[in-house]
């Protein structure tokens, strides 16, 4: 029995090898693609949190109550441990050792200086371990001392720049400190110093000093010892800032943990605010905004990438089913003979299922191991689920094939014609086809109903596969009619190649037509991925125009003709339009402020036609939605001091205008209406193929210059954007490779039988060149129908899925509507078709047989 099984395996080595290789590749992709994408999500999460991110617990207290709560180092560090115990797990696992400190309010330094100075007094236990004394001695204040100079230490850079040395006294209003020593950091690159720059060198700060206003000052922090801290708490009027900083460890924040942290921050904030045995404290961190924005982008990425990956799994499953089906077709005569000799269904299952399992199961395990050895990212449970689904689908084919032989005898094989053209679908198959189409429609309805909240829902991720399978069913229904319709036309041709090729394409059974379904799914996913990727790039390009308004925008306080001429004379500038911006204007009936933007819209449209969303109006007046609600629908006069009143009649609205905040109240009027207004800022929209940024900044010194290419670079460099681009590119390539493998599989497995057929035709006079043409004609109907229908579905899929493909988080809120593939995608499609045609010719040449050796006596 064992020798019989070995003989059967040797006889079917070609389909077994193909099945094993395809399972290996599919399992490898099922492990590597999700792991690589998840690793990209994790890297994006780390970038989104930024360097130096931290969670801080801060509180203000002073006087004896503050000293009673935190009398020394032990209490300061003990409170840090208490805060960590209150942290949810996601926060405690991502933060490092706490950094506790106490800082006094900034106190003005008495004396006459180039500009004012402010000195902070800081008790930083962690700083003393990271500095080295370079002059003088460490501060040493006697415990319980309440009068006299307070001994402090300052950084050497602070002392050198501001002119201090050991022994100098610094007057701070009602307090005098004496510089006892100078220090330097042991490692200036230590992340500890990032938020504590004032301890290492003087910094520039802006302090409100009534009635003068905001004043620029030199600020620094002097280090004190615990005795000096105790002395500060004896002043009940001084509120000290207690700060427990928990730095976020580099690389500790992944995509899944970022989602948990965003929710746990609120819980930690409530726990801190509810603590009753300490003065009131609160949690402050920039992670709230960062994690919320990252969560929004991650959700959008998972939704759209999940659609592509779900389709890839379907393509891989179809390819494996095709390989298993071809193996089953090769085994049908053997099983028919065994059944005719009295074998039971269980005895039939041994060679059928055993051979399939022998090829599929070890290859799946090997593919999983190879994927893990590649170390493309963290292991994913979805990989195991996908591999299990693929193995189950493959093993289900021989089981169905065995059940098909339950009628018994050679009659199950002989005299059964199931050609696509001749076969009539059974009622059961019609019901299954209708059910598949209904499932696809239901999936689309559910997906559109959930909108951008789909996330990683498996049901929604299966929608592309369901749509592709439903379309494949429809194409298979129309495929025979297309072949029948082409038959009479080809009979009129003088050559026999086209007619014979079409006849052989018509004689394919359902298993032979499976490549059509696989190719259609592959083309759908490739078209969808390339279309969405192109749409994202196009949307970001349009968003950069909408935000900048031109190739560059110069924001200047005062603009005269001389400066405008200098800007226009910059190398690369081909045109410039000036804009007058008048803020805080209002109407007589409503004091709500609006911004008046004076611009020549006709000239601006000619200058930058790429800017989207600029409607046409005969009056040159446009209003934002908020300004329209503020000013009403009637004629209104808008003005303010320094400008002539402008009378406008609200008509056409504009959603956004470059240089103005979204959802703000602004009115666009002709430039001539505000040309005489003086003392207001201006903007200049500049266009040019290669604007010299340095020369433009030199032409407008001190003005803000916004470059569109820099805005676009920042937009495309945001976290997750490269991950999404890579996922789409890899998805399109993987779908194309799997589709070509399907073509190659069918060609190689059927190459021996086809070689025998062409040997007969060669004996009848067909030339080698005609044989190559025949190979192309045989494969052309499947390629054209499958790839054409699948590509069209892939182009329409973004529109069909609707709100699930929401790319606005990556385009600054700018809606993406242009779903058109890029020229490289079209060239890739053409290259794939040429490769498939070349594969057909190459296989025909490789298995070409000499008629004298291939034909037997009597043939």
Question: What does this protein look like?
Answer:
The protein is α+β, with helices and mostly antiparallel strands and 859 residues long. It folds into four domains: 2-40 and 295-542 and 719-849, no CATH class; 54-100 and 249-285, no CATH class; 106-238, no CATH class; 558-702, no CATH class. Helix content is 55%, strand content 15%. The chain contains 28 helices and 22 strands. Strands 13, 14, 15, 16, 17, 18, 19, 20, 21 and 22 form a ten-stranded mixed β-sheet that branches. Strands 1, 2, 3, 4, 9, 10, 11 and 12 form an eight-stranded mixed β-sheet that branches. Helix 2 runs antiparallel to helix 24 (721-749), helix 11 crosses helix 16 and helix 18 (510-548) crosses helix 26 (768-801). Mean pLDDT is 82; it is low at 410-415.
Task: Reconstruct the topology from this structure.
Layout: H1 2-11, H2 13-49, E1 54-61, H3 63-69, H4 73-86, H5 89-92, E2 99-103, E3 107-108, E4 117-123, H6 125-128, E5 131-136, E6 150-155, H7 156-162, E7 169-172, E8 175-185, H8 197-200, E9 203-209, E10 213-223, H9 226-232, E11 240-247, H10 255-273, E12 281-284, H11 287-340, H12 345-374, H13 381-404, H14 427-450, H15 458-461, H16 463-491, H17 497-506, H18 510-548, E13 552-556, H19 561-568, E14 575-587, E15 594-598, H20 601-607, E16 622-623, H21 625-631, E17 636-639, E18 646-648, E19 652-653, E20 666-669, E21 682-687, H22 693-699, E22 704-707, H23 708-716, H24 721-749, H25 751-763, H26 768-801, H27 823-846, H28 851-854
Helix pairs in contact: 2-11, 2-12, 2-13, 2-24, 10-11, 11-12, 11-13, 11-16, 11-18, 11-24, 12-13, 14-16, 16-17, 16-18, 16-26, 17-26, 18-23, 18-24, 18-26, 24-27, 26-27
């Amino acid at each position: 029995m064992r020798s019989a099984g070995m003989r059967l395996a040797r006889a079917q080595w070609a389909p077994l090898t193909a099945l094993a290789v395809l399972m290996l590749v599919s399992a490898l992709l099922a492990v590597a693609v999700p792991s690589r994408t998840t690793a990209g999500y994790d890297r994006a999460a780390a970038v989104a949190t930024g360097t130096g991110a931290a969670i801080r617990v801060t509180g203000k207290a002073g006087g004896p109550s503050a000293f009673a709560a935190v009398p020394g180092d032990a209490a300061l560090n003990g409170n840090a441990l208490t805060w960590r115990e209150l942290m949810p797990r996601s926060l405690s696992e991502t933060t490092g050792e706490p950094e506790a400190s106490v800082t006094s309010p900034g106190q003005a330094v008495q004396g006459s200086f180039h500009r004012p100075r402010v000195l902070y007094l800081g008790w930083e236990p962690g700083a003393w371990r990271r500095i080295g004394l370079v002059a003088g001695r460490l501060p040493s204040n006697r415990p319980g001392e309440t009068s006299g100079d307070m001994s402090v230490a300052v950084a050497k850079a602070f002392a050198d720049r501001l002119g201090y040395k050991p022994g100098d006294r610094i007057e701070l209003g009602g307090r005098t400190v004496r510089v006892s020593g100078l220090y330097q950091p042991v490692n200036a690159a230590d992340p500890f110093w990032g938020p504590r720059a004032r301890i290492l060198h003087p910094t520039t700060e802006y302090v409100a000093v009534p009635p003068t206003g905001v004043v620029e000052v030199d600020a620094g922090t002097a280090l004190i010892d615990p005795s000096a801290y105790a002395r500060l708490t004896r002043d009940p009027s001084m509120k000290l800032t207690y700060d427990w900083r928990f730095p976020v460890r580099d690389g500790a924040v992944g995509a899944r943990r970022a989602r948990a942290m965003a929710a746990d921050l609120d819980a930690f904030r409530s726990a801190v605010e509810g603590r009753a045995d300490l003065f009131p404290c609160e949690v402050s961190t920039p992670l709230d905004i960062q994690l919320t924005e990252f969560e929004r982008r991650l959700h959008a990425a998972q939704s759209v990438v999940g659609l592509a990956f779900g389709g890839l799994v379907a393509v891989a499953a179809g390819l494996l089913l095709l390989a298993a089906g071809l193996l089953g077709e090769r085994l049908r005569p053997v099983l028919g003979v065994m059944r005719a000799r009295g074998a039971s269904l269980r005895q039939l299952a041994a060679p059928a299922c055993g051979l399939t399992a022998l090829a599929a199961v070890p290859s799946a395990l090997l593919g999983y191991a190879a994927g893990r050895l590649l170390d493309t990212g963290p292991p994913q449970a979805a990989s195991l689920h996908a591999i299990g689904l693929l193995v189950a689908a493959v093993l289900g084919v021989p089981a169905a094939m065995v059940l098909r032989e339950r009628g018994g005898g050679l009659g199950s094989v002989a005299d059964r014609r199931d050609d696509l053209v001749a076969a009539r679908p059974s009622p059961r198959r019609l019901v299954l086809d209708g059910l598949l189409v209904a499932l696809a429609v239901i999936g689309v309805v559910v997906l559109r109903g959930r909108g951008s909240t789909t996330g990683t829902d498996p049901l929604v991720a299966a929608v592309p596969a369901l749509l592709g399978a439903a379309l494949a069913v429809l194409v298979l229904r129309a495929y025979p009619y297309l072949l029948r319709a082409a038959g009479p036309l080809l009979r009129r041709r003088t050559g026999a190649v086209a007619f014979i090729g079409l006849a052989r394409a018509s004689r394919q059974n359902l298993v032979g037509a499976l490549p059509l379904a696989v190719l259609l799914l592959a083309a759908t996913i490739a078209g969808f991925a390339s279309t969405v990727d192109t749409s994202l790039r196009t949307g970001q390009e349009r968003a950069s125009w909408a935000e900048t308004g031109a190739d560059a925008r110069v924001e200047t306080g005062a603009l005269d003709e001389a400066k405008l001429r200098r800007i226009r004379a910059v190398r690369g500038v081909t045109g410039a339009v000036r804009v007058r911006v008048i803020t805080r204007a209002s109407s007589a009936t409503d004091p709500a402020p609006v911004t008046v933007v004076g611009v020549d819209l006709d000239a601006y449209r000619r200058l930058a036609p790429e800017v989207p969303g600029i409607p046409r109006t005969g009056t040159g007046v446009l209003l934002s939605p908020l300004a329209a609600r503020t000013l009403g629908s009637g004629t209104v006069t808008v003005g303010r001091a320094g400008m002539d009143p402008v009378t406008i009649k609200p008509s056409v609205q504009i959603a956004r205008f470059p240089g103005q905040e979204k959802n703000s109240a602004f009115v666009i009027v002709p430039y001539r209406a505000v040309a005489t207004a003086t003392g207001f800022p201006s903007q200049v929209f500049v266009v040019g193929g290669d604007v010299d940024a340095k020369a433009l900044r030199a032409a407008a010194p001190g003005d803000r210059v916004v470059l569109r290419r820099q805005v676009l670079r920042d937009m495309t460099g945001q976290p997750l954007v490269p991950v999404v681009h890579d996922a789409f590119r890899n998805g399109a390539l993987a779908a194309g490779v799997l589709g070509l493998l399907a073509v190659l599989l069918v060609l190689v497995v059927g190459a021996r039988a086809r070689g025998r057929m062409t040997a007969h035709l060669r004996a009848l006079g067909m030339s080698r060149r005609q044989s190559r043409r025949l190979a192309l004609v045989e494969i052309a109907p499947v390629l054209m129908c499958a790839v054409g229908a699948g590509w069209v579905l892939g182009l329409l899929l973004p529109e069909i899925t609707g709100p699930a493909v929401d790319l606005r988080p990556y385009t600054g809120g700018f809606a993406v509507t242009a779903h058109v593939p890029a020229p490289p995608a079209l060239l890739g499609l053409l290259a794939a078709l040429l490769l498939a045609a070349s594969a057909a010719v190459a296989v025909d040449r490789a298995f070409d047989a000499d008629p004298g050796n291939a034909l037997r006596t009597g043939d």
